[in-house]
Amino acid sequence: MTDPAIEATALGKRFGRRGAWALRDCSFRLPAGRVCAVVGPNGAGKSTLLALAAGLLAATEGSVAVLGTDPASARPRVGFVDQDKPLYPQLTVAETLRMGADLNPGRWDADTAGRVVAGGDLDPGKRIRSLSGGQRTRVALALALGKRPELLLLDEPMADLDPLARHELMGVLMGQAAGHGTTIVMSSHVVAELEDSCDHLLLIGGGRIRLAGEIDDLLAAHARVSAPAETDLAPHEVVESRTTGRQLSALVRPAGPLPGDWRTAAPSLEELVLSHLRNPEAPALAPTPAHDTTEAAA
Amino acid sequence: MVDYRIDRHSGVATYVQIVQQTKQALRLGVLVPGDKLPTAREVVEATAVNPNTVLKAYRELEREGLVEARRGLGTFVRRSLGAAPADSPLRAELEDWAARARESGLEREDVAALFTDVLEKHFQAPQSHQPHQAHPQGDPS
Predict the structure, then answer these.
(1) Of A84, A237, B77, B78, which is most buried with the most CB atoms under 10 A?
(2) ipTM score here?
(3) Contacting residues of B for A220, CB less than 8 Å apart
(4) Closest by Cβ to A297, choosing from B41, B47, B136
(5) Cβ pair B41:A295 closer than 8 A
(6) Which of A176, A184, A196 to mutate to test the interface with B (most CBs of B within 10 A)?
(7) Could you tell me which residue ranges the ABC transporter domain spans (chain A) (predicted)?
(8) What is the distance between the alpha carbons of residues A166 and A160, in angstroms, rounded to a whole number?
């Protein structure tokens, strides 16, 4: 049995004694080997959650276990890239990678780190200070990947990158997942950006978990339906419904077979996410995976 | 070797696209029995899709008896599909016909309509094969 990559139990974080809760009552379990999208609007608590898992913030209440231990003890096996990509501005690219090698004795994968940097046509003698945002992202990812982490936490990793670099670096990340079974958790407020690359979703809204689970399971638990207006949707759980003229369209969680005279369709991931964000009162859903044994890529 | 191209806006599930493109390569003789499919890692590095998507596509191909996974070695083609390799005389005749159609002033759509018409006349509509998942967008190729 492998430990889950992250397991949060009633996790909460409040900044300052009387501050608002950035994250509250957050419980989920992320099995190892998954590529997980952390999605939510700005200010939803995505960065707070990642910083808690990285051990950079202490929980106000509840707990989070990382790779079967506490976040601080797991740190040698975890790579974290902050939204701001903090690096030493006065070091050159080559010196930054040498620092990575020195700080991670016995683990450092110089080939991978070098390949990520080389993909960007970066001059190794250039100082970090003089790099563009996208180039800095590339160096920060090289540093995190060179550590050969078991868990990679990436906060908005793709925000600064042009479409070409985004595709290439996402390919590098997927290659890590396929080759080493690395668990990857990455946040974004753009669902479409992550849809093809992720198999697991954490949707956060207003500091709480709204959806958590395998993307396939979450999609299968919902249906988009159209029916005549005035139709009673009970007993199916309604996430969102709208009536236009004589037509009612809704996103529901079917409680059983749907009537044959409703038109039904499978929702897209983006529809699922947007419907939940537009309707904060819709209940959260975190199905427990029926099969916890999906093999990590051989 | 096949080079998968994923179209994010096609409405066809990604793993179905990989299945379809593999079958296309098998039909055209680009892949023949004994050939090795690219590893999941090679595919995901080139396409940036999730590794499980590739594995799901390969499992589907394996279920249909087209490929087999050999432990530690990779996934290999077991049998080809159809009998229309890229270099068959039939293809040369069709090329010839298409060139004549173009010379006589037919547009692309005219040719497609003609071809479909003849196809319908001589071949039964295929048993539309949907992968057994609840992805209604799967396009029967």
Answers:
(1) B77
(2) 0.82
(3) 134
(4) B41
(5) no
(6) A196
(7) 6-231
(8) 9
Q: Taking a C-beta distance cutoff of 8 angstroms, is the pair A226, A248 a contact?
A: yes
- Given an 8 Å threshold on Cβ–Cβ distance, is A178 in contact with B134? no
pLDDT digits (tens, 9 = 90+) for A224-240: 999 998 888 889 999 99
- Residue A231 in domain: yes
Same domain, residue pair A110 and A257: no
Do A87 and A66 fall into the same domain?
yes
Q: Which residues of A touch B135 (CB under 8 A)?
A: 266
Q: Do A171 and B48 touch (CB under 8 A)?
A: yes
pLDDT value of position A288: 63
Q: Which residue of B has its CA nearest to A217?
A: B134
Structure tokens at A28: 């989920």
Task: Provide the residue-wise pLDDT of chain B in tens; the chain has 141 residues.
Answer: 788 999 888 878 899 999 999 999 998 888 999 999 999 999 999 999 999 999 999 999 999 999 999 988 999 999 888 766 666 788 888 889 999 999 999 999 999 898 888 888 888 765 544 444 444 444 444
Closest residue on chain B to A200 (Cα): B50
- Would you give the end-to-end CA distance of chain A in angstroms? 17
A172 closest CB neighbour out of B45, B49, B134: B45
C-beta separation of A200 from A30 below 8 A: yes
Residue B63's pLDDT is what?
A: 96
Set out the domains of chain B in order of their start, with CATH numbers: 14-77 (1.10.10.10), 89-122 (no CATH)
Residue A285 lies in a domain: no
User: Cβ–Cβ of A174/B55 closer than 8 Å?
Assistant: no
> How many residues are present in chain B?
141
Residues near A296 by beta carbon (within 8 Å), at least 6 away in sequence? A32, A33, A177, A181, B51
- Are B45 and A175 in contact (CB < 8 Å)? yes
Q: Is B12 on the interface with A (CB under 8 A)?
A: no
- Segments in chain A below pLDDT 70: 1, 288-298
Q: What is the CATH number of the domain that holds A25?
A: 3.40.50.300
What does the alpha-carbon distance between residue B40 and residue B115 come to, in Å, rounded to a whole number? 37
Total count of domains within chain A: 2
Contact A276, A211 (CB under 8 A): yes
Q: Please tell me whether residues A122 and A258 are part of one structural domain.
A: no
